[in-house]
Amino acid sequence: MESFLQIAPHSLAIVLTRIGTGESTGVSESEELPRHHTGYEIFADFKTENTQHVWNQRISDAISETFFLGWIDEHVLLIQGKEDHLEVLREGWMRRSLNPPRGFHIKYLGKQNDGIV
Fold first, then answer.
1. Which GO MF term does the entry hold, naming one (predicted)?
2. Whole-structure pTM value
3. pLDDT given for residue 105 in this prediction
4. How far apart are alpha carbons 101 and 115 in whole angstroms?
5. Crossing angle of helices 39-51/57-64, nearest 10°?
6. What are phi and psi of 105, to 5 degrees?
7. CB 13 within 8 A of CB 81
């Protein structure tokens, strides 16, 4: 099993990469750089993307119990919740059933081995 970085107690770092401007929905349709989002907007979209899918009730329940903790360096979303809910999200990511916010891909959850995001 993979190891995950823990920034703060009961927290999880979700490292995102932005989808190119041609593929992204809801970000920008012009040739300019995509519109800057706040971390909380991205977190809200992440929750929405993962609570709309009734077929995976465990992820829906777990994500609804998480809270926004922070946004680091414009690509790391920090969330906080009970450890069992975070474990459901980790499992969902490993099984590729955890959805990213619109306009992003989930690169990984924390970084294994070296402990640095």
1. RNA polymerase II transcription regulatory region sequence-specific DNA binding
2. 0.74
3. 94
4. 24
5. 150
6. -115, 150
7. no
